[in-house]
User: What shape does this take?
Amino acid sequence: MSDKRRTFAVIDGNSLMHRAFHAVPPTMNAPDGRPTNAIFGFLNMFLKMIDAF
Assistant: This one.
């Protein structure tokens, strides 16, 4: 086993999605009109977390 320490993250996806839904303007919609602001915000927060660790 190597001596390198690995990082393990526990993510509350429901909380992040709720936060993203209210943080990103509701004007982000798919071509068929479905809101995509929560997905966009969630992925941005998730990718920032990956970059941080």
